[in-house]
Amino acid sequence: MVDETGNEKNKRNRARRGAKAEEASQSPSETNKPDAKSASANGAGGNGNGAAANGRPSSGGRPSSGGRPSSGGRPSSGGRASNGASASNGASASNGASGGSSSGASASGVANGANGTAGANGTAGAQAAANGGNGASGGNGANGGNRGANGTNGTNGSSGASGGKGDEVRPQVATRFADTDFRQVLGTGLAACRRNLITVAIFSFIVNLLVLSIPVYLFNISDRVLTSRSYDTLIMLTIIVIGALLMHVVLDMARRFILMRTAVELEAKLGAPVLAAAAKASQNGSSREFQMLGDLQHLRSFVTGPVLLTMFDAPIAPVFLLAVFLVHPKLGFIVLGASIILLTIAGLNQRLTAVPFGRANAFATRANLQADAMARNAQVMNAMGMIPEGVLIWGKETAQSLISQVDAQDRNIIMASCSKFLRLCTQIAILGYGAFLAISGEVTGGMIIAASIVGSRALAPIEGTIEGWRSFVQARSSYARIRALLHNSPLNFERLRLPRPRGHLIVERVLYVPPPNKRVILNGVSFELQPGESMAIVGASGTGKSTLGKMLVGSIFPTAGNVRLDMMDLRNWDPRQFGESVGYLPQDVQLFPASIKANIARMRTDTTDAAIFEAAEMADVHSMISEFPQGYETQVAMDGSPLSGGQKQRIGLARAFFDNPRLVVLDEPNSNLDTPGERALAKALKSAKDKEITVVAITQRPSLLKSVDKIMVLKNGTVQALGKRDEIMPMILPQRSPAGTPPNGEVPLLE
Question: Which residue(s) pair with 663 in the sheet?
Answer without folding.
Answer: 582, 694
